[in-house]
Structure formats: C-alpha cells, structure tokens
Amino acid sequence: SQTIHQWPATLVQPVGSPLSLECTVEGTSNPNLYWYRQAAGRGLQLLFYSVGIGQISSEVPQNLSASRPQDRQFILSSKKLLLSDSGFYLCAWSPLAGRSYEQYFGPGTRLTVT
Amino acid sequence: GDSVTQMEGPVTLSEEAFLTINCTYTATGYPSLFWYVQYPGEGLQLLLKATKADDKGSNKGFEATYRKETTSFHLEKGSVQVSDSAVYFCALSSTGANNLFFGTGTRLTVIP
Lengths: 114, 112
Hints:
By secondary structure, chain A is mostly beta strands. Chain A is 0% helix and 57% strand. In chain B, 0% of the residues lie in helices and 51% in strands. In chain B, the strands form three sheets. In chain B, strands 2, 5, 6, 10, 11 and 12 form a six-stranded mixed beta sheet that branches. In chain B, β10 and β11 form a beta hairpin. The mean pLDDT of chain B is 93. Chains A and B meet through β5 and β10 of A and β5 and β6 of B.
C-alpha cells in the first residue's frame, strides 16, 4: 500500500532563517506531488505541484520554492522565512502523473515563524 | 474557471442529529467530486468520491450524490457522532487538470 511521510511534524523558526520541508511517498511510481499551505482556520492554498522529476509548477508567487530531486521526493524550501509563512503545510500525491484523480495527504508540518 | 462553493460554518449539532453540508460547483466538462475530512492537527483524509453524474459516494455512514442538474454534491449523514467533529472539504477535479479545487471547509462540532 502507499504511504506518504512528511517531516518534521512541527517546526519553530525565526524570521529570516532558511526552511526545508521534506515529503516522500512509498508504494507508487511517477505520482503527481503537491504542496499546500493552510493558514489557521482557513482553507487550502495550493503552492506547488509536480508531474515529474525536476518539473515544478508554482501557483502562488512568494518566497518559497519547491524541488523534486527524485521520483517520490518533494521538498519545500525558503532562503529567508517571513512571519506570514507560518501555517500548516501539507504534501499530497495523486496516483497518475498527468491526470487528476483524488489526492492523498500526508500528516502535515506545522510551521511557526517567530 | 472551476470552483467549489461550500456551506459556511461552523455547524454545531447534537449527537444523533442529521447532517447536511451543502456543496455546489462550477466546472467545464465532467469533473470528479470529492469530500475530504480533516481531524484536529491532522492532514486531510479522503472520505468519499463520485466520478460521474448520479453516482453516490459513501463511507462511514456519510453519503453524497453527484447531481449534474443542480451542480451539487451535498454531504449527508443520518446520525452524527461526537467523533465526526472535524472540518469537511468539498473538492473537484476537472478533466485534464493537474490539481483539485477545494472549498473553504466547514467545521462541524458534535456535542453529546
């Protein structure tokens, strides 16, 4: 069966510090991968998605970036965090690259920027 | 563009009450429709789905029917439990799209 992992689960970082969040998927090949952010009490905001290694689409311009160095690994990064980057970050995958089906979410990373 | 409009919350119900959370959508083509549930501090879990008109998705006592004529996918449960307290998201997947469109979420609180 497929599983999706995210780490760390919780992170507290000062303003201006770098960020690296990692997401890995097991049990499937060539998935679509997604990064979402959920601000407190709010809905989901799609940040990035990827249909293959090295292929990243950005949905919202910001100081975040994403990379996909391996088929089942998706990384969210920032060089300098802002207070507004605080939130709950969710990674998700869908079964078939290039076509949209249901998405399966990881447990999330709660980021607090102080 | 494609979008989902979801009933505003929060919704508070007594245990064993009937639940309806409204969801309507706008989409070109023939989207697939989903309900996700998010328990406190967790990621989203797929609750149920429907991929074509008149399909009924069901899981854990929850049901939703894909109504193309009213562009709706309302979530229902006949008798809610305290453990159903969560945020519920309606979502759609359009033909040829690479992502889901989510509603804003509806928080449900069930009191004993």
